[in-house]
């Protein structure tokens, strides 16, 4: 070929096969496509021997051009001798007095795109690799969108579950949550105390100062109950002015009595509301799971209520246990 013809062939090969190499009879690279150059940034390729730049893994150990041309089907497996050494596949065929090698990244194309910062212009326009990259990109975008959607759905589900177990006025757990906690403690065989709390004179606050004042009082009571209990305890509003406290792992009557006395003292203090004072008190009754051979929620709640109303019968703002004799 003349020099002009040779130049035209190289331009055509660069466009059609941007990952090609033209070798002379000695296996020296006389011309390489633009994408091959990206495998060796800052290094000259032309004039270097193929074996100097690439390690051949199939046919293994083949270095001379004659051996490469005898590869079955002309198929080669090789990788650059400089990092990141992404694996390549190739096909070799005789060309003039040397050979023509065309390379492909095969299944390593995603690694290659990241490692060498390749774009669609680094591949032949008809290369199915481009289509695959578009599909991968579309899949990645779809998976990311799906992940974000799943996160939003999970967050919404958690929020809905939390709302389903929460009293909207006070922020305490509701009866449904209380039932769940008690059932779980019983199923796990853990000891716990159940304290029923009922507000005295709450109806008077509603009747004299209005329901807004009553709501304010309930919210303040909720804050006091949370502050007086441990993080692992449960405070639930189970009725208008009825509350239940659950104390996992606590069966000491003396400690529970101290908690009750502290709550009675705090709830007996006037609660300010719009320049007025809301005055309530609290009566309480407690039962312990250790008192039952086979504790069940319904019986324990009924016994805690019985202890509570016994406290009211003794003058309100009091606390007692069921059974009272222990």
Which labels suit this protein?
single chain; 326 residues; alpha+beta; Beta-Lactamase; Alpha-Beta Plaits; 3 domains; 11 helices
What does this structure look like?
There is one protein chain. The model has no long low-confidence stretch (mean pLDDT 88). It contains eleven helices and 13 strands. Strand 12 (281-288), helix 11 and strand 13 (319-322) form a beta-alpha-beta unit. The protein has three domains: 3-125, 2-Layer Sandwich (Beta-Lactamase); 127-163; 175-322, 2-Layer Sandwich (Alpha-Beta Plaits). Helices cover 44% and strands 22% of the residues. Helix 8 runs antiparallel to helix 9 (211-228) and helix 9 runs antiparallel to helix 10 (253-267). It is an alpha+beta fold and 326 residues long.
**Total number of strands:** 13
Enumerate the strands of the largest sheet in spatial order, edge to edge or round the barrel.
2-1-6-5-4-3
Q: Summarize model confidence as the mean pLDDT.
A: 88
Residues in β-strands, percent: 15-25%
Give the CATH architecture of the largest domain. 2-Layer Sandwich
Radius of gyration: 40 Å
Q: What's the CATH class of the largest domain, please?
A: Alpha Beta
How would a crystallographer describe the biggest sheet?
A: 6 strands, antiparallel
Derived from helix and strand composition plus strand pairing, the structural class reads alpha+beta
The low-confidence parts are none
Number of helices: 11
């Amino acid at each position: 070929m003349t020099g002009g013809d040779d130049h035209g062939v190289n331009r055509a090969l660069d466009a059609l096969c941007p990952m090609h190499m033209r070798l002379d009879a000695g296996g020296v690279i006389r011309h390489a496509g633009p994408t091959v150059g990206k495998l060796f940034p800052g290094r000259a390729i032309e004039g270097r021997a193929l074996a100097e730049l690439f390690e051949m893994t199939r046919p293994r150990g083949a270095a001379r051009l004659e051996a490469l041309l005898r590869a079955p089907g002309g198929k080669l497996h090789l990788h650059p001798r400089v990092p990141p050494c992404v694996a390549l596949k190739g096909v070799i065929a005789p060309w003039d007095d040397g050979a023509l090698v065309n390379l492909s990244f095969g299944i390593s194309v995603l690694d290659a795109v990241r490692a060498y910062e390749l774009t669609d212009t680094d591949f032949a326009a008809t290369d199915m690799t481009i289509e695959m990259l578009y599909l991968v990109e579309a899949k990645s975008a779809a998976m990311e969108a799906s992940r974000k959607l799943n996160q939003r759905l999970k967050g919404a589900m958690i929020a809905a579950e939390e709302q389903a177990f929460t009293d909207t006025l006070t922020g305490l757990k509701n009866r449904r949550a209380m039932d769940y906690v008690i059932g779980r403690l019983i199923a796990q065989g853990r000891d716990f105390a159940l304290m029923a709390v009922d507000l005295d004179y709450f109806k008077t606050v509603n009747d004299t100062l209005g329901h807004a004042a009553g709501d304010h009082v309930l919210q303040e009571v909720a804050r006091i109950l949370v502050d007086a209990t441990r993080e692992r305890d449960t405070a639930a509003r189970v009725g208008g002015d009825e509350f239940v406290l659950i104390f996992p792992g606590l069966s000491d009557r003396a400690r529970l009595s101290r908690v009750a006395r502290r709550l009675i003292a705090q709830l007996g203090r006037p609660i300010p509301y719009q320049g007025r004072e809301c005055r309530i008190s609290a009566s309480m009754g407690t039962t312990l799971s250790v008192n039952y051979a086979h504790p069940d929620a319904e019986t324990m709640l009924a016994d805690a209520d019985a202890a509570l109303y016994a406290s009211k019968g003794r003058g309100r703002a009091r606390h007692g246990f069921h059974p009272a004799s222990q």
